[in-house]
Amino acid sequence: MRDWRTDPTFAMCAALVDGADLESFVGGAFDVRAVVADIPPRALRGLLLDAVPWGNFPHGDAARAAVRLLCTGEGSALGATDVLGGLCANDSRAAAALAVPFLIPVAVDGRHPHRAAALAVLSGPARARHHGVASRDEFLLHRHDPRRHAPGDYDDYGVEVTGYPAGWSVAAARAAITAGAPVLLPLLDDSDPALRMDAAYALATAADPGHTVRTALAGRFAIERDAMVRAALLLAVAEAARAHGHPQAVPWFRERWLDGAEAPEVRLVAAISRLCLTDEPVPEDLRRAIGPLVTDGRAHAMDALPWMSAAAGTGEPGLLRCIRRMLHPEEPEPDDEDLRSYLP
To answer: Rounded distance, CA 76 to CA 325, Å?
Structure first.
């Protein structure tokens, strides 16, 4: 990737650092929300890809090359997904947000060789904070928690590593996924469990004023038989509930983690979801219920869930990190000591 400081948007970012009003850039050539809004649904993969001003955004040329590879289906998708996923992991999402309208048609094309790869990365820019985040305050949030960060910092999102407004990138990606929700929803019924999990992960970021997405997620949960997919559907419902507010979700999740007939993976994510949706102290019956369910093997297996994979730390699966941070928040971050000592 070339040095992002040579991108045209760097001038905007530098101006913001010098005190320029962000509103003066709204709707302009460097507003990724406006650019994404101008890309038609089910974007064409030919000329339209080159008509988008990728070069206006940090690492835009690299993102365009990655999207082109995924759209054409040529070669391996690994390099392309590494580029797009890396931009999000490195807190530089604007160009990755531009990719979303092009990735959705690939993801829903049952004959496309890179559909799974496209689906797996398309919702990355829709979440501002999720890598390594496992606390009750911040897990399942797509933005900073206003209770812990100063309000008014670009609508609590702050800036990306490049200085670009993080909230603009997130809003652009979420708007594209919301527009694509009608074609993404059928993926919840796909024959491939991994695709169903990634579809739930993407749909959790959609705006849902009519509750269509939440209803679809809950409806699929009612008939889903794969334990890991059931867990993914619960996490998607919890993320949507946290973003849009749904008080009835708390008792519903309590029923799920108390259900001894339910799969351990489902009970564990239901407990975690319940903890994230309320500020109440951790119930003792929750500690007792999930303690026997937490094993190293299960924790490593549950990293197949994109939420858990994102929450994982160095050498620590996402489930174990969530349990440790949520049930033992008073403890310092471990160094060389046995992480298993933090389990319930």
So the answer is: 37
- Tell me phi and psi for residue 138, to 5 degrees: -120, -20
> With bands split at pLDDT 50, 70 and 90, how would you rate the model's confidence at 148?
very low
CB 92 within 8 A of CB 10: no
User: Could you tell me which of 140, 97, 103 has the C-alpha nearest to residue 272?
Assistant: 140
Label residue 153 exposed, middle or buried (CB < 10 Å: 0-12, 13-18, 19+). Answer: middle
Which residues are CB-neighbours of 148 under 8 A, at least 6 positions away?
Answer: 137, 138
Contacts of 308 (CB under 8 A, 6+ apart): 302, 317, 318, 319, 322
Is pLDDT larger for residue 60 or for residue 5?
Answer: 60
- With beta carbons less than 8 A apart as the criterion, state whether 60 and 54 touch: yes
- What digits encode the pLDDT tens for the residues 31-83? 999 999 998 765 555 558 888 999 889 889 999 999 999 999 888 899 999 99
Query: What angle (nearest 5°) sits at the alpha carbon of residue 157, between those of residues 152 and 163?
Result: 100
From the CA atom positions of the chain, what is the Rg in Å? 20
Residues 6+ apart with CB under 8 A from 339: 315, 316, 320, 324
Question: What's the pTM value of the predicted model, to 2 decimals?
Answer: 0.90
Q: What contacts 238, CB < 8 A, 6 or more positions away?
A: 140, 249, 253, 269, 273, 276, 277
Mean pLDDT is lowest, of 139-148, 278-287, 297-306, 318-327, for: 139-148
